[in-house]
Design a protein that fits this description.
Structural class: mainly alpha
Helix content: 40-55%
Radius of gyration: 13 Å
Number of strands: 0
Oligomer: single chain
Shape: globular
């Protein structure tokens, strides 16, 4: 399997070391995009031992489906 791309590898290393990651920055800089992409990639590698892009439709559903491994929760500052 190919190594993770640099941003994903950095997030993975922080998760392994600290157990959590906080992405911060101004709006529109890709925080949510990177968080979702890395979460899906790491879940695919952990659950199926292959990259996210190589998953079958059934495997994709296990990652992204309604009760999938990757879910999003948004906290609003208000």
């Amino acid at each position: 399997m190919q190594p993770l791309e640099p941003t994903a590898a950095r997030i993975d290393n922080i998760l392994r070391r600290k157990g959590q990651v906080i992405l911060y920055g101004p709006p529109g800089t890709g925080k949510t995009f990177h968080a979702l992409a890395v979460a899906k990639e790491l879940a695919a590698r952990q659950a199926f031992r292959k990259p996210f892009r190589e998953l079958s439709a059934t495997e994709l559903n296990e990652i992204e489906g309604d009760n999938g491994l990757v879910r999003v929760c948004t906290f609003h500052p208000g």
